[in-house]
Write a structure and sequence with these properties.
The chain has about 300 residues and is an alpha/beta fold. The chain has one domain: TPP-binding domain (Rossmann fold). The protein is elongated. The N terminus is likely disordered. InterPro entries: DHS-like_NAD/FAD-binding_dom, NAD-dep_sirtuin_deacylases, Sirtuin, Sirtuin_cat_small_dom_sf, Sirtuin_class_II, Ssirtuin_cat_dom. This is NAD-dependent protein deacylase.
């Protein structure tokens, strides 16, 4: 399915915008049956019983903000196209791959960075303020939890709003890099072939041949989003921090994740080993359904917003 976006030049040199069709408002949330009131009551009891709730959130939490995910049945990237995300080895090993990645990311950034937190993000922030939520680990890189005001937060896979130099380790804001892209590519144009998760769009290879990519201002090194690409590993320090927060918790709630990626699934295994009760709120099956004492298949925002942090 393609979204007819066009990058076009505005009156001021170097400034660009994106014209987005109404199709952008398409629903990336998979269909689901009506909510089982009994299961919601049980989930309310689960939350009420917890005094130090540990939450893991995934892409299914952000689909309600208009960001597509990879695996949702019928509407995820894997279901809609045969395209796959950039692999870590491909990015670091090929200048052409980096050029293609950054061109796509440049076009998609204005839309991706404009997404707003939804009811689920706001609810989890209120639970933190109420003292119910002890720690939140998100597998998402969209910064929506931070935008909602979440503080007790680990971005397990990093954040697309930051950029890191692979040479010297300098971290900068993605928005600053956008301005550098604009300055280097004042005449560059492209028409996209669809929207993808993690802040980019689809472009044909010939569209990116003349796209120029800046290097680190400190050491001229290679710039990369401060996110964990497929095929890369989460740092040991981050994993240990999450395990430490989990050890302090007395219940785990998974929201909007199929847990297919081991980086998140490992914490379900750890919770089970520690006899920490687990509940899952997600549309469709997950890798950890057999570990949970409660599973609710429904939209995260719809269910979380009616629960009370009692």
């Amino acid at each position: 399915m393609s979204l007819p976006w066009r990058v076009f030049r505005k009156a001021s040199p170097g400034l660009r915008s994106i014209s987005v069709s109404a199709n952008l408002l398409m629903n990336f949330v998979p269909s689901t049956s009506s909510i089982d009131a009994n299961l919601v009551d049980r989930l309310q009891h689960f939350v009420s019983q917890a005094s130090r709730l540990f939450v893991i959130s995934g892409a299914g939490l952000s689909t309600e903000s208009g960001i597509p995910d990879y695996r949702s049945e019928g509407v995820g990237l894997y279901a809609r196209t045969d395209r796959r995300p950039m692999q870590y080895k491909e990015f670091v090993g090929s200048a052409k791959s980096r050029q293609r990645y950054w061109a796509r990311n440049y076009v998609g950034w204005p839309q991706f960075s404009s997404h707003k937190p939804n009811a689920a993000h706001r609810t989890l922030r209120r639970w933190e303020e109420a003292g119910k939520l002890h720690w939140l680990v998100t597998q998402n890189v969209d910064s929506l939890h931070s935008k909602a005001g979440q503080r007790r937060l680990t971005e397990l896979h990093g954040c697309a709003h930051r950029v890191i130099c692979l040479g010297c380790g300098t971290v900068s804001l993605r928005e600053e890099l956008q301005r550098r892209f604009e300055a280097l590519n004042p005449e560059w144009r492209a028409q996209t072939l669809g929207v993808a998760p993690d802040g980019d769009v689809f472009l044909e290879d010939e569209q990116v041949l003349h796209f120029r990519v800046p290097s680190c201002t400190a050491c001229s090194g290679t710039l990369k989003p401060e996110v964990t690409f497929f095929g890369d590993n989460v740092s040991k320090a981050t994993v240990q921090l999450v395990h430490d927060r989990l050890a302090e918790s007395d219940a785990m709630l998974v929201t909007g994740s199929s847990l297919q990626v081991y980086s998140g699934y490992r914490f379900l295994l750890a919770a089970k080993e520690r006899c920490i009760p687990i509940a899952i709120l997600n549309i469709g099956p997950t890798r950890a359904d057999h570990l949970a004492e409660l599973k609710v298949s429904a939209r995260c925002g719809e269910v979380l917003s009616i629960l009370q942090p009692l």
